[in-house]
Amino acid sequence: MIRIKICCIGSIEEAKKAISYGASAIGLVARMPSGQGVIADELIAEIAKTVPPPVATFLLTSETSSGGIVNHHKRVNTNTLQIVDTLKLGSYRDIREKLPGVKIVQVIHVLTERSIDEALKVSEKVDALLLDSGNPNLAVKELGGTGRTHNWAISRKIVEQSNVPVFLAGGLNAENVREAIEIVQPFGVDVCSGVRTDEKLDLKKLEAFFRAVLG
Question: I need a labelling partner for 168 at 20 to 30 A (CA). Which of 59, 88, 185, 193 fits?
Answer without folding.
Answer: 88
